[in-house]
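Lecture 7 notes: from sequence to structure.

We start with a single chain of 376 residues. Read the sequence below before looking at the structure.
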Amino acid sequence: MLEQRMIGQPGMTGAPVRNIDAIVDLVRTGATAFDAAVAYVTDSGVDALLSKISSSGADAEWAVVTKRFLVSIDWYRSDPTALERLAALPAEVRVHDGRRVVDRPGCVPFVPWHPKWFSVHGSSARGHLVGSGNLSRNGLVSGHEAGTLQIVRKPSNKTEKVVEAAIRAGEAWFEDSWTGAAPLPTVLDKYRRGFAALPKTEVARNDDVADVSGRVGTRYGLTAEQLAALTSATNFWIEGTGGISKNRGPSRPGNQLNMSALTRVFFGGSADEVPRNSALLSVTIEHPTDQTVSSGAPIRFSDNSMDVITLPVPGSPWSTSYDDRVLLFTKATRGAALHYVLTVRSGAGARSWRNASEAQGTSFSMRSGRRWGVFG
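Now the structure, written as tokens:
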């Protein structure tokens, strides 16, 4: 039996089909092995993949299939945290030409690695998705992409056997590329250091920086460069002075931090235009000295057109107050999950954060004058 579909993302008229849906279809074939070759991987892509696997009910199939990801670090486009999260699925992750590329300024490739290929195989089925989408939210869900999904089960005629042979040829190409690639652990530390030193405005990708209207950033006062910096940075700091709501009463320290609209993209939210008073997402905030202490932190778009994150309630073991302090959120992988470590300092104590942002050209001010920035 042969199944073939055109993927036209974000959706052809009358047939909305996305890359993420096609990947789930591959996983649900009952195959025993899942392989992927992509140009880059972002945290938003890992979030989208794992969320869809769970919401589609494909958890059982995903848990038993062996997983391999062949990726690149060309031009520092892949998030180090995203690569770590893939490895923790668990999966084996290798980097095309990684040992040579990681030693080059800017991780400029000798020959770019540019495939977008997802494949499964087993005793009962073979299939692949060949298209244009990377492992990012933009590539899997919302960007303009095109591709073809083919799945063959027990080929019985000439056409089905020809398609199966083409899929097997793709598997052979992958194996050949896989053999010469660098295991992720051999290049990750050096890549992470280089990624941290790279000014975030120079990361050459545009995932999550705009919605289909094309006007979100300009409407809310953030430039495309600022949005790109927020999506790719590991660290985000912001002054709390004047930005902490008195939501717990006039005599008690508040725990709702007002931020510029679209700051949500640092925390994995999309830049879609939404109505005021919309819930956006919830992230996990982790204590800076104890990984076992964490708190859920919902983020919403408020009625004053700001993104608002609800922080842990002030008091032991958290900071006794967020007023007149500077808050730093640092991305940290915990298995396949992504946490945000919250460090709180005085203005003087946060000088090194401001200096790091200024050195990378990513220190900014809100319209109110409150300063914020990203780095690393």
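The chain is about 25% helix and 25% strand. Keep this in mind for problem set 3.
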